[in-house]
Design brief:
Elements (H helix, E strand, L loop, with lengths): L5 E5 L6 H14 L3 E3 L19 H12 L3 E4 L3 H10 L3 E4 L7 H11 L5 E5 L6 H13 L6 E4 L16 H10 L5 E3 L1 H5 L5 H10 L4 E5 L17 H59 L7 H16 L5 H18 L1
Parallel strand pairs: 1-2, 1-8, 2-3, 3-4, 4-5, 5-6, 6-7, 7-8
Helix pairs in contact: 1-2, 1-9, 3-4, 4-5, 9-11, 10-11
The structure holds phosphoenolpyruvate and manganese (II) ion (MN).
Length: 338
């Protein structure tokens, strides 16, 4: 396991040059590896804040030159892709409302073809991983062989905690289908609420995700979209530190586990060799008994064997019942061979 999960962070939406630069300059030292901001926002109702559009591209480029972080945004059409390619951004993602639309995914895949741009695909809003898988296949057919996946949960009308139900098994199923693709988790859109973000992020990392896409804003309460779920830079720094700490601990634990398991494997191999030598000896005894017409089972001998085993075992910290069962099994197996 790597100590460094890949973290894409930044605001839900670009709002102003100042907000982009302030946020980028604070998420970089918090530990983000890449900077995100939505320019074209898919909003439920017209008339809501629909993003600043193309003019935000220059702000993102400025954020990149001031922080060195790769920059990316959501694309939902050929026009968005062309604008992003002209501006020279580093990555894009296909949003949860776009992934389920094969026409749009096809158009995006074709316009990205040959560009070499990193593409992330969010799961569709509704719980239908076939559509998610289909989007991967459309990109791959256009030569984008390693799109990344972003798991952001599903909209449900059940009473679940958070904004989008996590349904982790769906993410695991997708990983099994595309084991070679990286998968990030977006706990922000799952949570819809900053209070729930850290535990979802920790859960995602425990399930083996490669990293996270987390919304952060220099001043969340003033955000023009998703203001309840965007972390402050300080909250982001704390979340990333905690995750790295837990990863560090779990690395040390897995190291120790693997040493112990190697020892167990070695002992098991020796146990089998010893059992095999014991069986060969009992085969020889069987032959001798047959030659001189002795009965196979001699209760007093068996009684001595068991007593000796129990007395040897008591000094070795082994439980009597356990030793009795093991020796009964061994005795039965050698009688069967004789
Ligand atoms: C976003 O990342 O800002 C966004 C709109 O997310 P989603 O597509 O997952 O709803
Ligand atoms: Mn958002």
């Amino acid at each position: 396991m790597s100590l460094s999960p890949y973290i894409i962070s930044g605001p839900c939406s670009a709002e102003s040059e100042r907000q982009i630069l302030d946020t980028a300059l604070s998420v970089a030292p918090a530990g983000a590896n890449a900077f995100r901001a939505g320019l074209w926002k898919p909003r439920t109702h017209p008339g809501m804040f629909e993003g600043v559009g193309d003019k935000g591209l220059a702000w993102l480029k400025k954020a990149r030159s001031e922080t060195g972080l790769p920059i990316g945004t959501e694309v939902a059409s050929r026009r968005h892709v062309e604008a992003v390619l002209d501006a020279g951004l580093d990555f894009v993602w296909i949003g949860a409302r776009t992934t389920p639309n094969p026409f749009m995914v096809q158009e995006i895949a074709e316009s990205l073809s040959g560009s070499g741009l990193k593409v992330w695909i969010k799961n569709p809003v509704s719980q239908d991983i076939e559509l998610w898988a289909g989007a991967v296949e459309r990109l791959q057919a256009c030569g984008i062989t390693d799109p990344g996946l972003i798991f952001r949960g599903f909209q449900t009308f059940d009473n679940v905690s958070g904004r989008n139900a996590a349904r982790w098994m769906q993410a695991i199923e997708m990983r099994t289908r595309f084991p070679q693709l990286q998968m990030l988790c977006d706990p922000s859109h799952m949570a819809g609420d900053t209070a729930l973000v850290p535990s979802l992020a920790a859960r995602a990392m425990n399930l083996g995700m490669d990293g996270l896409m987390i919304e952060a804003h220099c001043c969340p309460q003033e955000a023009l979209s998703d203001s309840n779920q965007q972390l402050t830079p300080a909250q982001l720094a704390e979340l990333i530190d905690n995750i790295k700490l837990r990863r560090g601990n779990s690395d040390a634990v897995s190291e120790r586990l693997s040493v112990l398991r190697d020892n167990i494997d070695e002992l098991d191999a020796r146990l089998l060799e010893i059992l095999s030598s014991r069986m060969r000896l009992s085969d020889e005894i069987g032959m001798l008994k047959r030659e001189c017409g002795m009965p196979i089972i001699q209760p007093e001998r068996w009684d001595r064997v068991m007593k000796k085993a129990l007395s040897d075992a008591s000094g070795l910290g082994l439980q009597e019942d356990f030793v009795k069962s093991v020796f009964r099994f061994i005795h039965e197996a050698s009688v069967n061979r004789q």
